[in-house]
Design goal:
With 593 residues, the protein is of the alpha+beta class. It is built from 14 helices and 25 strands. The strands form six sheets. Strands 1, 2, 3, 4, 5, 10, 14 and 15 form an eight-stranded antiparallel β-sheet that branches. Strand 8 and strand 9 form a beta hairpin. Helix 3 packs antiparallel against helix 4 and helix 3 runs parallel beside helix 14. The radius of gyration is 24 Å and the shape is globular.
């Protein structure tokens, strides 16, 4: 029997055909994210939080979207992000006019209230813009209830949320298709739409002028100057992406979406709307390389809280407010082409030893910047205790596979222990140093081959790009000959056309097994630079940063042959490593913290 037999035969929203992933853009305010397609349709939005049910889920075959698009179908599209923000401007050129639509999730954000801003403007000619607002709460299962016009604002109930829309009072609401209307504009004219979804409470006036001003000012405060870095515009954009994915609670989601396939029809579709501790540490370390900006402090705070709460039972992932990740379950939707819809994530129950190593490296960076709070210092002790009791256990590793004695996990722990030993009081430092050397000696005995190359695991001699992560961070030490031998072997076996893959799958060519893994490409740049080859590092950096869509967003993987993105969007740790490369490859004196 076909596994999809009980699913809908057609997408719930036939008016929103899917695009290739590279053509989408993402809006985010830290508490939730929206996906906008090239035709100006918001096709994904979970509300009110990242892990909430979606109100617009047309992206994955559900119901609901919010569209503003030229009525003239004979047009081409484009767009860009305003520098250092996730304010997105879509641009459409028809035979007679040029239209722009400026979109943003309003900031500063509230956890129980989202505000989506859309401002249309005609740059040339006259235009008629088609408006469709069709919220479908519960991943398309529910309808809006009790729509009514209150003055010049539409109000309704959407699932458990209150909905308000300003700027569409001349449109009509249909039970079947939502709010629909046309907006006519001449050259120089603009029109604002404001959508609010909230859990209740006060209902402030939806003033687009004030909301836009506050949003612009919030982005100006949030994103630092990156003009002195390599690829300064991309670095600033990477920082904006990380800020947009980071909640006021400190948690940073791995990506804004769920169920976008890593490989078509393989079952490799996952929910990434949660905060992975490892990813949080990668982002914190990247920001720390540039300076102790706000995102660094939030990463330290969130990681500290989880370690103090759960100790050696630290989970790999949490909701952004520190709660447990729900169990994985499927949705009865047709899904993005090649994908299978699911929410929740089973990896949150795994034991991943390297998470403790990354956390210790983050705390060492905090001490370096004089930002190690008393709570974070206690978390160091808890993390060291956890490592001491668990480092011999098999774990799921960076790639969340079967539990084995992964080399990268142990080397990451060694790196973290050595880093904190260099910045903490003598007694704690001696304990960390002793434990680091014990872990390193046993890992070397089990996992280092006689030819000086690190094995992937105790029982696996294959190439493993994850080994570049500790190498880039300083473990083994700079004078250890295994660094060059291992890096060269990884490049020889896992690199094609300037991109890097994670590992080999028996009998399957690299590009057919999965896409190039962009985290690995940037890590290769850092590792190559650490071995003294700045020119080679820059080649890896420049090649890897080409693997984005027109919006400048990176997914987890890149299909080199088809030049397409694969997986959820935008992938936070890829943007984090791009930022770190931009810092380190621009300054010969910059060393890992």
């Amino acid at each position: 029997m076909d596994a999809r037999a009980d699913k809908q035969a057609e997408p719930a929203s036939g008016l929103c055909p899917p695009w290739v992933l590279r053509d989408y853009a993402v809006l985010a305010d830290g508490e939730r994210g929206a996906v906008v397609d090239p035709e100006g349709r918001i096709v994904w939005l979970s509300a009110p939080r990242w892990h909430s049910d979606a109100v617009f889920s047309a992206l994955i075959g559900g119901g609901g979207y919010f569209g503003v698009e030229p009525e003239d179908r004979w047009h081409v599209w484009g767009g860009y992000y305003e520098d250092g923000t996730l304010i997105r401007v879509s641009r459409w050129v028809t035979a007679d006019c040029v239209i722009e639509c400026r979109d943003a999730l309003a900031m500063p954000a509230s956890v129980d209230r989202l505000v989506l801003l859309r401002r249309m403007r005609v740059e040339r000619g006259q235009a008629r813009v088609r408006l469709v607002l069709d919220p479908r709460p519960g991943f398309g299962a529910d309808r809006v209830r009790d729509p009514r016009l209150e003055g010049d604002v539409w109000a309704a109930r959407a699932g458990g949320l209150r909905l308000r829309v300003a700027g569409a009072h001349q449109a009509a609401w249909s039970p079947e298709s939502g709010l629909r209307g046309d907006i006519r504009l001449r050259k120089g004219e603009s029109h604002d739409l404001v959508l609010e979804l909230s859990e209740g409470g006060d209902a402030p006036r939806l003033d687009p002028g004030r909301l836009w001003k506050e949003t612009e000012e919030a982005w100006q405060r949030a994103v630092p100057d990156c003009s002195g870095l390599a690829a300064p515009r991309d670095a600033r954009h990477a920082y904006a992406v990380l800020r947009g994915l980071t909640s006021s609670s400190g948690g940073m989601v791995a990506a804004a979406t769920t169920s976008l396939p890593e490989r078509a029809n393989t079952g490799r579709s996952y929910d990434y709307r949660f905060a992975w501790i490892r990813d949080q540490c990668y982002a914190g370390l990247a920001v720390a390389a540039h300076g102790p900006h706000e995102l660094f402090d939030t990463a330290v705070r969130f990681t500290t809280g989880r370690i103090l709460t759960d100790g050696e039972g630290l989970r790999p992932a949490y909701t952004v407010d520190g709660g447990p990740v729900p169990d994985q379950r499927g949705l009865p939707l047709i899904g993005y082409p090649g994908g299978s819809d699911r929410i929740g994530n089973q990896a949150a129950a795994q034991f991943q030893l390297d998470t403790f190593g990354e956390a210790l490296q983050l705390f060492a960076a905090a001490a370096h910047h004089d930002r190690l709070t008393p709570e974070a210092e206690r978390a160091v002790t808890v993390a060291v205790d956890a490592v001491e009791r668990n480092w011999t256990r098999p774990d799921a590793g960076l790639w969340e596979l079967d539990e084995r004695w992964w080399t990268q996990s142990r080397l990451s722990v060694v790196c973290g222990l050595r880093r904190v030993a260099a910045v903490l009081p003598r007694r704690t430092a001696e304990r960390c140093s002793g434990l680091a050397e014990a872990v390193f000696a046993e890992t070397r005995r089990r996992c280092l081959r006689t030819d000086g190359r690190w094995r992937r695991a105790t029982d696996d001699d294959g190439p493993e790009a994850a080994l570049l992560t500790p190498l880039a961070r300083g473990c083994p030490s700079a004078d250890d000959p295994s660094n060059a031998v291992t890096r060269r072997f990884i490049e020889d076996r896992l690199a094609e056309d300037g991109y890097l893959y994670r590992f080999e799958r028996p009998g399957i060519p690299l590009g057919e097994a999965e896409g190039a893994f962009l985290l690995c490409g940037f890590t290769m740049a850092l590792a190559t630079d650490r071995l003294g080859d700045r020119a080679g590092a820059l080649r890896w950096f420049e090649r890897t940063r080409t693997a984005c869509g027109p919006s400048g967003l990176f997914a987890e993987e890149y299909d080199v042959r088809q030049r397409q993105l694969r997986g959820n969007l935008p992938q936070a740790f890829v943007h984090a490593l791009l930022l770190e490369c931009a810092v380190r490859l621009n300054d010969a004196s910059t060393l890992p913290l």
